[in-house]
Write a structure and sequence with these properties.
globular
């Protein structure tokens, strides 16, 4: 397994560039840059999912398993953080009109893209594999609350965050600060609700990074002014964030708050890193363009190949799943682009987003 990580690191390093002395990448939070970062983690998520369908172990696998256990939910926090940031940027630029349009142009669009994918999982999981689900569990799968073999919790959280944002920013139309405050409170209550309902910790232990991204959108000018004064300030910020991350990484299992601080400083560390170092890669750009489809479709070939017994050799299994997922992603995105033009007409004509994780970033529109 570690060979796949080496390949990913090689691709990353090949496109890594550093800003000159006392200079910084002021566009580090642009849609393109954040999508590239998300693409890195999309590959890590793929590998993390794939190993649950095979048996691995040994000198070439154990290092990866250690890395996988250490990262845990960190592989998804950039999606939530960048999504929150992107939405807040759009709200600041477009105001209430953007929020009013979210129900149709964001929430519904994301849901029906997801619902169409679930039809594929229905064919695979129920029609081919022969799994049985109650009507209740099957219908709840379309909210992300339950699953029929697909990745679900992230979708459930994303749908909920859309609703929370719409409610909060329509309630406080004249004050983004108050609306954001309410968003943070409702997100916390939502997380507590998920815990109370007995859902897995993955449902709630990273959800606060969504409003965290929105808060960063509000304070970014002040953060940039401080850390981009010169390299001394940047290195100081980097050192403090790495130190804090390391400290809470060792204590992340002590309590919910320790884990949240572990996640918080992971994000801080990454953001500071992005100010000085930039990644350009056509390979990662492709994954960024197809990030939703690559994420949501990857379990279909995994389920099918395991069902037909092609998971005996883990490396061949992972390579076949990777190729199949890339193919499915291209076909799906082409089909959805055409369907979007029919469903939404001129509203979304020729808009290429491809990413649920950036929640259809509009910051450059």
């Amino acid at each position: 397994m570690i060979i796949f990580i080496f390949i990913l690191v090689a691709v990353l390093c090949a496109g890594l560039t550093s800003a000159k002395k006392n200079e910084f990448f002021t566009d580090y939070m642009s849609p393109k840059n954040t999508t590239t970062v998300n693409a890195i983690f999309s590959v890590l998520i793929f590998l993390s999912h794939a190993v649950t369908y095979v048996k691995i172990g040994g000198a070439f696998d154990d290092p990866y398993l250690t890395l996988r256990q250490y990262l845990g939910q960190l592989v998804v926090v950039t999606y939530l953080f960048f999504s929150g940031y992107g939405i807040m940027e759009s709200i600041k630029k477009k105001g209430t009109s953007y929020v009013r349009g979210m129900a149709k142009n964001r929430l519904f669009k994301l849901w029906y893209h997801f619902a169409i994918v679930l039809l594929g999982y229905t064919i695979v999981r129920i029609g081919i594999i022969g799994m049985k689900y109650s009507l209740k569990d099957y219908l709840l799968a379309y909210t992300g609350y339950t699953t029929i073999g697909n990745s679900n919790w992230y979708m459930f959280v994303t749908f909920a965050m859309y609703i929370i944002i719409i409610v909060s920013f329509l309630m406080f139309r004249k004050s983004n600060v108050l609306a954001l405050g309410l968003t943070c409170i409702l997100t916390l209550l939502f997380g507590l609700f998920e815990d109370k309902m007995g859902l897995g910790s993955q449902y709630y232990n990273t959800v606060l990074t969504f409003p965290m991204g929105m808060v960063f959108s509000m304070i970014k000018p002040y953060v940039d002014k401080l850390l981009m004064k010169n390299d001394v300030f940047w290195f100081s910020g980097m050192f403090l964030s790495v130190f804090a991350f390391g400290y809470f990484a060792n204590n992340r299992t002590d309590s919910f708050m320790h884990y949240e601080l572990f996640v918080f400083f992971a994000i801080v560390m990454l953001v500071v890193f992005m100010m000085k170092l930039n990644i350009k890669s056509t390979i990662l750009d492709w994954f960024g363009e197809h990030i939703f489809s690559f994420f949501i479709l990857q379990r279909i070939p995994m389920l099918l190949l395991r069902h037909f017994g092609y998971n005996k050799n883990p490396y061949i299994f992972i390579i076949l799943c990777f190729i199949a997922t890339v193919f499915l992603s291209v076909v799906y995105d082409e089909a959805m682009d055409k369907l979007d033009k029919i469903v939404f007409g001129k509203i979304l004509k020729d808009k290429k987003t491809g990413s649920i994780y950036n929640l259809y970033f509009e910051t450059n529109n």
